[in-house]
Amino acid sequence: MPCPFLGSLNQAFVRNYGSSLMKQYGNYCPMISRGFRTLGQDETKCPFIQQNSIISEAPKEMTEDIVETVRPYKYEKFFNEQISAKKRDYSYRIFRKVSRLAAEGMYPKALEGQENRRVTVWCANDYLGASRHPVVQDAAISAIKSYGTGAGGTRNIAGNSQMTEKLEGEIAKLHNKPAALIFSSCFVANDATLSTLARILPDCIVYSDAGNHASMIQGIRNSRATKHIFKHNDPNHLRELLSKSPDGVPKLVVFETVHSMSGAICPLEEMCNIAHEYGALTFVDEVHAVGLYGKRGAGIGEERGVQHLIDIVSGTLGKAYGNVGGYIAGSSLLIDTIRSLAPGFIFTTALPPPVLAGSLAAIRLLASEEGRSLRSKHQAIVRYFKLSLLVAGLPQLPSVSHIVPVPIEGADKVALVAESLMKRGHYVQAINYPTVARGEERLRFAPGPYHTPEMVDSLVAALIESFHENNISFDQFMINGACRECSLEYKVDMMRDEPFKFPMQAA
Ligand code: PLP
After folding, report:
1. pLDDT above 70 for 483
2. How far is CA 26 from CA 35, 141, 431, 446, in A?
3. Name one Pfam family in it (predicted).
4. 492 vs 417, residue with greater confidence
5. pTM over the 0.90 mark
6. Mutate to test the pocket of ligand 1, among 125, 183, 260, 321 (most ligand atoms within 8 A of CB)
7. Are strands 109-112 and 98-100 parallel, antiparallel or unpaired?
8. pLDDT of residue 495
9. How many whole angstroms separate alpha carbon 31 and alpha carbon 336?
């Protein structure tokens, strides 16, 4: 006869917590409490069982049998299989122990490994060294002293600090938009904005560039809106897809200006114009362009004088601005809508005071004359590096920006070359799947204004040795002076004299 009291509880729960249940709930049960009173027996055992000799405890084999049926899923085994698969295809990631140095004269050096060996860093996205600039550091330190290290909660709960509003005002001004909104990162900004917008706009259709960053892909996926993918930076394909779209339906066209892994720059004006021709809103990620292009560092939109064609711009505070966090800027109503409806904005702790103050200082710094001078030094060293690779006969993908990818096919090979470079005092991270497609592995270099020509010479010499050491031939990526993959010619008049031209951009 099942116990009418305990019978209503989940069996596994009763099995696991039986003795404490007896103690805790026994007094409520007429059977058990009477049993306790009359028998005065062990309170952890059911008095019904104690009284009836015909009812004995289940034999051990039966208990084992029962335990067997609820044996938990083998979580650790599953995780082990996942990791083993990553190791087998060489896409398992090992983070290097690298501490970048920020003291005067140290940047872009870092301490590496257990022995704290000094190496030169070539892959940081702190592109202009803003993270170690004294003005940015001082702003962050003084904000900590005045307001502490943490925000104290979500903006709804902890309130909007004056610095938050100042920073959003500065970002809006930078992008010539009425309003801006900051998030904990640009991954979150892209995901939260796209997932919310494409979800709430009725029957929204999203047109997404094939090369889009994971944050945008995630946002679009999360919205569950209908999605069409157009070929990377291909306005013709975008037009072809849009021309089939229904009238009067909301549409979003989503792409990046500077591509994070190839360094390609999109035909921004053309893509925005096509989007608007078909009544779509443009969502443009300027993550690898803000701080680096344009008179005030507002990005490719500013450099090409087409900021007004971007309806929603997203950017990061974590790369050229040397802090952490992300943002969007756009119309006041759009920003208010995302502020009011996006869970990724609402339900998370606000950016802390040192980050707000540091970011504000960095944006102002890079919009100033000093920022322009850093940008021109940046472009000069990138040009010198591209030229040096060309002269050495080393491969490089034809990038028109500050990102210089050196292709080395095979996750194992690219890791070996990165290791050889590290031995020679140069740190660059090997890029493999899922950041790029399999077969498109590369070293991604991002020289900055504090790298000297001597550092570049030393890196190129180390690259030559590392290619030889790992039996990688130099010319496998070039056919008649052009890229094997995309047929673009290798040229180094890639850098810019004002006004900037894009000689490498595919027509
Ligand atoms: N968008 C692009 C194109 C990126 O490359 C990245 C990060 O690398 C992000 C968005 C996300 O930015 P954050 O690092 O601020 O999250």
Report:
1. no
2. 9, 60, 62, 70
3. Aminotran_1_2
4. 417
5. no
6. 260
7. antiparallel
8. 46
9. 62
